[in-house]
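We treat protein structure as text, and this decision shapes the records that our systems exchange. This encoding replaces a full spatial description with a residue-level series of whole-number codes. Below, we set out a record of this kind in full and without editing:
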Amino acid sequence: MGMELERLDGKVVDTLKDGVTFTLITVQLASASLSMLKLSRAVRGAYNYVESCAQRVLNIAETAGRLDVDPAVIAAHVDAAAAARKVLADAEDLATEAEEMASDFQAAKDGHEADYGPVHEAMTTKQGQIADRTYYSNR
């Protein structure tokens, strides 16, 4: 009787561990997907800000040109705007990559749920005894 109770307790603990693991993986994948989407939006926000700054610097350079400001000052403004715009392509690539990673994490979560969700559901709602997991580990 004591050995049967220990085996039953072990099976219950194993089932609970599997359920917790399934849930944790699902939550972590969803969290990773959301984090990557947030990163993508933040990068795009920074992109828009840098683009706006570059345009304002060019506007200042144009105004300076009309006011006969030293050409070296105008050139420095134009160079600064060009430098800001040069990093925009990298920022856009980063934002796109983050979106793709968010999609990959979501697909992994969906795949995990599709593969293991029915098993998890069956194990948590099954009536009667659960088979000894070592039986399946050798298959």
